[in-house]
Amino acid sequence: MADLLKLFSYGTTGWGDEILAGAWLTIRLALATLPFGLLVGFGVALMKRSKSRWVHGLASIYATVFRGLPELLTLFLIYYGGQLVVQKLVGLISSDVQIQASAFLAGMIALGLVFAAYASEVFASAFQGITRGQWEGAHAIGLNRTQTMLLVIVPQLLRLALPGLANLWLNLLKDTSLVSVIALADLLRQTSLAVHVTKQPFPFYLVACLLYLVMSIISTFGIVAIERWAERGQGRRTNERGALA
Amino acid sequence: MLAWLQAFIGTDLLVQYGPRLLHGLQITIELVLISICCGIALALPLALARLSKSRLLRGLSLCYVQFFRGTPLLAQLFLIYYGAGQFRPALQSIDLWWFFRDAFNCAALSLTLNTAGYQAEIYRGAIRSVARGQHEAAYALGISRSVAFWRVILPQAAVVALRPLGNEVILMIKGSAVASVVTVFDIMGETRLGFARSFDMRVYLYAAVLYLVLVEILRRIWDRLEARLTRYLRRSDRTEHVERAVTQAGPATH
């Protein structure tokens, strides 16, 4: 047992620091993907609301494809396909340059595209929850379209979309483990390296699983706090309405 | 145009790797079918344990669900596939090593354990959604608890669980792709092999099409299944006819 604990210690003899560095990369990757996925997802949701059949169709196809493909396949498509495309583009300018794709960037783009596909559904149904009166009211007090969106719609939209987005965040956190397959030194990859050297797969993978679990649980606490913050105006308003009635 | 299309699809490549991909498709379907079916068998007791009065059962079931829903499938697969190797002598002594030696079995096992965690939550919600009055009515009629569960509660819960279960099957189809990482030659495994040999991106595109078709077929089957199981909720054909006649006679609303 003591020998086993030694394996998880810091420094040159233990793998504790390597594994924690991997966990840190997992967190960084998930945090970097989030804003990208949210923005693209919101854009696709707006496209779904477009009156143009082409724009609407394009958005639907995007969501269907990236929700239907395995995340691992999307990752490979972006990692290898992206490398090929960039290589060809660079090849047009000079043929000597070799392109080495950044696994972090590929992982971020692939996970972001998948996140965006699901997020667009969440945003689209959140749009349904905003009554017509909100748009009309904003129009009536003379706000232009951008102001209406940013000042009136988005704040309410975020509150409605929050539970769905929270689920997507938890999925994203777990999906980051797939980047270990394209040799990015995330938590799972670092654990695999440790297993390779120490020949102790069970304890190491169990610790990796528990670390993911801890990240999920901490996220859940964060989500509850954010939801409470987003709902802060809600309770009071029902009271006022109750008092009026 | 046709020549361009042919070049885009890559007829030679398709002839070379198509049959292998179809074999991979078979493995993927086997993997998903086995894990979904075994997952149901495991998830029902788990859901009942979550709903039981015993704190111990509730706690154990909650731990199971938390663990398998809170950690990545890939990590679970590694834990089982590589982790089992560490217990080889012990597994050999109880004559189970043959099972864990095969990557397919390990993938099927980890997919089963994983989906059981998710399905348990689906069934728990579905069972709780059945109105209290149904339990009370069954009790009042003197029906035993097990009969009441199987004949009264479960059929109603099944209808509620159907839609999320369909989503779960789709997630399993997608999730099963990670089995390729431990040398199972499912669609993804064959694709990776094909790409490693040909260095042609189109192999990945074939796989993408296969997965999309698989998911779409499943979605349609599920729509049919749902229509069939909820047919008692639909209004009768006669009312529909009358309604249609009314809307046709009335002014167009679109």
Automatic annotation (TrEMBL), chain A:
Where in or outside the cell it occurs: the entry states: Cell inner membrane; Cell membrane
Please give an example of a GO cellular component term from this record.
ATP-binding cassette (ABC) transporter complex
Name the source's superkingdom: Bacteria
Query: How is it placed in the membrane, per its record?
Result: Multi-pass membrane protein
* PROSITE patterns membership: ABC_TM1 (PS50928)
**Residues in ABC transmembrane type-1 domain copies:** 23-223
Which Gene3D superfamilies does the entry link to?
Answer: MetI-like
List the InterPro entries.
Answer: AA_ABC_transptr_permease_3TM (IPR010065), ABC_transp_permease_HisMQ (IPR051613), MetI-like (IPR000515), MetI-like_sf (IPR035906)
Does the record bear Membrane in its keywords? yes
Q: Which residues cross the membrane?
A: 20-47, 59-81, 101-127, 148-170, 202-226
Q: Tell whether Acetylation is among the UniProt keywords.
A: no
- What PANTHER family does this protein's entry cite? ARGININE ABC TRANSPORTER PERMEASE PROTEIN ARTQ, CATIONIC AMINO ACID TRANSPORTER, MEMBRANE COMPONENT
The entry assigns this protein to a family as follows: Belongs to the binding-protein-dependent transport system permease family. HisMQ subfamily.
Name of the protein this chain belongs to: Amino acid ABC transporter membrane protein 1, PAAT family
Q: Which organism is it from?
A: Faunimonas pinastri
TrEMBL record, chain B:
ABC transmembrane type-1 domain: residues covered: 25-222
Question: Which PROSITE patterns does this UniProt record tie to the protein?
Answer: ABC_TM1
Q: Tell me which Gene3D superfamilies the record gives.
A: MetI-like
Q: Which GO terms describe its biological process?
A: amino acid transport
A Pfam family matched in the record: BPD_transp_1
Membrane protein topology class: Multi-pass membrane protein
State the Gene Ontology terms under molecular function.
transmembrane transporter activity
The record's subcellular location field reads: Cell inner membrane; Cell membrane
Q: Which residues cross the membrane?
A: 27-49, 61-84, 203-222
- UniProt KW keywords: Cell inner membrane, Cell membrane, Membrane, Transmembrane, Transmembrane helix, Transport
User: Which GO CC terms are listed, alphabetically?
Assistant: ATP-binding cassette (ABC) transporter complex
Q: What's this protein's family per the entry? A: Belongs to the binding-protein-dependent transport system permease family. HisMQ subfamily.
State the name under which the record lists this protein: Amino acid ABC transporter membrane protein 2, PAAT family
Q: Which organism is it from?
A: Faunimonas pinastri
Instruction: Identify the taxonomic lineage of the organism of origin.
Output: Bacteria, Pseudomonadati, Pseudomonadota, Alphaproteobacteria, Hyphomicrobiales
